[in-house]
Amino acid sequence: MSRASSYAVDMRLFLLIALTMCAFASNSILNRLAIDSGASDPAGFAVVRVLTGALVLAGLVKLRGGRLTLSNRRRIVGAGSLSLYMIGFSVAYLTLDAGLGALILFGVVQITMFAATSLTGTIPTAKQLAGAGLALGGLAWVLWPSGAIQVDLVGAVLMATAGVGWAIYSLAGRSEPDALEGTAANFVVALPVTAVALLALGDAWQMSVFGYVLAALSGGVTSGLGYALWYRVLPQLVPSTAAVVQLSVPVIAIVAGVILLGETAGPRLVVGAVFVLGGIALAVARPRRG
Predict the structure, then answer these.
(1) Looking at residue 207, what DSSP letter applies?
(2) pLDDT at 285 (0 to 100)
(3) How far, in Å, CA of 251 to CA of 44, rounded?
(4) How far apart are CA 48 and CA 144, in angstroms?
(5) Hey, how many other C-beta atoms are within 10 angstroms of the C-beta on 206?
(6) I want to staple 173 with a disulfide (CB 3.0 to 4.6 A). Which of 188, 216, 221, 231 is the partner?
(7) How do the residues of the chain divide into helix, strand and coil, expressed in percent and rounded to 5?
(8) Is 28 part of a structural domain of the chain?
(9) 289 in a structural domain
C-alpha cells in the first residue's frame, strides 16, 4: 500500500472513531438534559433508549434484507454485557455524582480492556501505557469533585460493574461478523433483561413527551447507530487503543454541554482536555517508518 493510500485509510478510520465518540458523548448530553430537566426518570429513559435502539436497528436490518440471529454464543456475551452496562450505569447515577461516575466508568473500562489485551498475549507498550495514564490523569483532573468527596459504595460498585460490562461489549465487537446485525440482535435480546431489571430497581415511571423524544433520539440514533459504528471500527483497533480513545468521551460531552446547554467552563477543563487529548495521541500514534 502506498503512503497516500495508507494516509487515506488512517484518516477515514480517525473520522469514524471521532464520529463514534461524538455519538457516545451525545448520549451523555441527551441523558443529562432529560434527567436534569425532570422530563424523565433514569430507569424510564434507559428502557425507552434500549427499546427504540432495538426497533431502529432491527428495521434497518430488515430493510437491508438481513436477519437477526438471537440465539448463539455471541448474543450471550454481547447482549449480556450490554444489559450489564445499561443496568449498572442507570442505577449507579441515582447516587453518584456525574463526574465521579464517569471517572469510575472509564477507568474500569480502560483497566479491563488493558488486562484483556495482556491476557491474550498482546502486552501494551510503554508508550501506550504512558499515554493511557496521561489521558486518565487529565480526565481525573477535569471530573474530580470539588470539596468533600462522598462516594456511595453501592453506586460505585454498580458503575464499576457497568464499566466491566462495556469493556466486554467492546471486546466482543472485535469478532462480530456484521456490525449492524450484531448490534441489532444485542439490543433486541438485551431489551427484556434491561427493562425488567430497571423497572424493578428504579422509581415509578415518570416521563413527559419531551423525555420520550430525548430517550428515543438517544436510543435510535446516538446509541443504536453509534454502537453499530463502534462495532464496525473495533476490528481495526487493538483493545488498548479502543480503551484509550474512549477517554475522550467525557471531555467531548463537557465541551458540548458548554456549547449547547450553557454550562460553564474554566481553566481546569482546558488543561484537563489538553492532557486527555495529548495522552490519546501518544497512545495511538504509530512509530515513524524510516
Answers:
(1) B
(2) 75
(3) 26
(4) 30
(5) 13
(6) 231
(7) 80, 0, 20
(8) yes
(9) no
Q: Does residue 66 contact residue 181 with C-beta atoms inside 8 Å?
A: yes
pLDDT digits (tens, 9 = 90+) for 228-285: 999 999 998 888 888 889 888 888 887 887 787 676 667 777 888 888 888 888 887 7
State which residues form the domain around 247.
3-284
- How far apart CA 108 and CA 104 sit, in angstroms, is 6
Angle subtended at Cα 258 by Cα 234 and Cα 92, rounded to the nearest 5 degrees: 60
User: In the predicted model, is pLDDT for residue 30 greater than 50?
Assistant: yes
- Is the distance from CB of 116 to CB of 167 less than 8 angstroms? yes
Contact 33, 263 (CB under 8 A): no
Asked if residue 290 is part of any domain, the answer here is no
Count of structural domains within the chain: 1
The answer to whether the beta carbons of residues 100 and 143 sit under 8 Å apart is: yes
Question: How far apart are alpha carbons 173 and 232 in whole angstroms?
Answer: 8
Whether residue 32 is predicted with pLDDT greater than 60 in this model: the reply is yes
What backbone phi and psi angles, to 5 degrees, belong to 146? -85, 155
Q: How confident is the model at residue 31 (pLDDT cuts 50, 70, 90)?
A: confident
Written as nine digits, the cell of 217 is 433520539
